[in-house]
Amino acid sequence: MTIHDITTIEDIKLLVNTFYEKVQNDDLIGPVFNEKMIGRWPEHLEKMYRFWQTLLLEEHTYSGSPFPPHKQLPVNQTHFDRWMEIFTKTVDSLFVGKLAEEAKLRAANMAYMFNYKIEYFRNQGNQ
């Protein structure tokens, strides 16, 4: 397989499917995802295809707010670090180029913001 940049919806699907297969089998974050996604993995994957297609290919197929479904997850910085580790390794194993780097940057920004917001809302509940 020749490694190239992310350029098509097929590339997005390969990235998303490969990544979430690793996530589902991960000892740390797998249980969190698998419990939340019971019976809904196909729906989630379709949503992730559209999300990354919109971000990377500028084909506007996703609409919505990605954060609210994550607000109550029992996760912390360790979970986000693992998520980023898996995501980065997945991208690097499949793609190289500008959009591959953009995917990793956007994922890192999202992980940081999601963790920050989850901690914020968690701390607001304790006041």
UniProtKB/TrEMBL annotation:
It comes from the Bacteria. Pfam families: Bac_globin (PF01152). The keyword Metal-binding applies. Keywords: Heme, Iron, Metal-binding, Transport. The keyword Iron applies. SUPFAM superfamilies: Globin-like (SSF46458). One of its GO terms (molecular function) is heme binding. This is Globin.
